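Researcher: Here's a chain I'd like modeled. Treat it as a single chain, no partners, no ligands.
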Amino acid sequence: MPQKDYIAFELHKTSRCIKRYLDRQTQKSCADGLTGTHGWAIAYFYDHRDEDVFQRDFEKACNIRRSTATSILQLMEKNGLIVRESVPYDARLKKITLTEKALLLHRQIDTAFDELEDKLRASLNERELSCFFSVLQKIQKEVDVDDQTAQPVRP
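Model: Modeled as a single isolated chain. Structure tokens:
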């Protein structure tokens, strides 16, 4: 009897492969215990460096829960990659700012992400890429019960 293919399982496996690849690349090029997840976060904060960005913005952009974002950001703060600063217009809010250390790492992280993107796109033609993204968007829309307005994060 043939084995059934499960979309969710295959997506999960692919996601884990990408995470491990990015973790290896960032460890190799940036060291300092940096993970691929921290690289994505640095890329997001870098792209929004001219704005006041708060934890809730990061949560929404990455489609992650508050507890996950808190863990990521606490470790990044401990490792000297970000600082949380009060804003004058609301004492409850703390904007997230990259440190000099993170700004210096950004170029290396960006290079690692570009290399991964090139590697992933190498064997796909434009039609396949278009179909791939269309299918992913349909799947995300179908299973995203929290927030269907989350935007993809581009490092």
